[in-house]
Write a structure and sequence with these properties.
Elements: H1 7-19, E1 23-24, E2 31-36, H2 40-57, E3 62-66, E4 69-74, H3 84-96, E5 101-102
Antiparallel strand pairs: 1-2, 2-4, 2-5, 3-4
Helix pairs in contact: 2-3
Length: 114
């Protein structure tokens, strides 16, 4: 079972994620990112690629898709909050979402998680 990130681990990892557009999910120990793609096909293709990585990690995002927008939340339910699995999946999501725009206004400031 994954363990919840320590305060030191959060301090080390979360600022870099914030720089790429991740933010805090409201009232949860979770991170969130909202991506906008050129069209539905790009959004769906991105989700398919992420799904393959999620299966490899055995860690799955909470997400929704409306047309070209993908709203992603990551947390580890078994750990009761953020874990290293969320950081790994966030990094992979960032790599796979090149070319998408990030809606930074849709997420809360990362400092809510410290």
């Amino acid at each position: 079972m994954a363990e919840k990130l320590t305060p030191a681990q959060r301090k080390a990892a979360l600022p870099a994620l914030a720089a790429t557009g991740w933010g805090a999910a409201p009232e949860r120990d979770a991170i969130r990112k909202v991506l906008r793609f050129a069209d539905f096909n790009e959004a769906w293709g991105f989700m398919a690629r992420v799904a393959l990585w999620a299966e490899k990690l055995n860690h799955h995002p909470e997400w929704s898709n409306v047309w070209r927008t993908v709203d992603i939340t990551l947390t580890t339910h078994d750990a009761g909050g953020l874990s290293a699995l969320d950081l790994k999946l966030a990094d992979r999501i960032d790599a796979l979402s090149a070319g998408a725009s990030v809606d930074r206004d849709a997420v809360a400031a990362m400092d809510a998680l410290f």
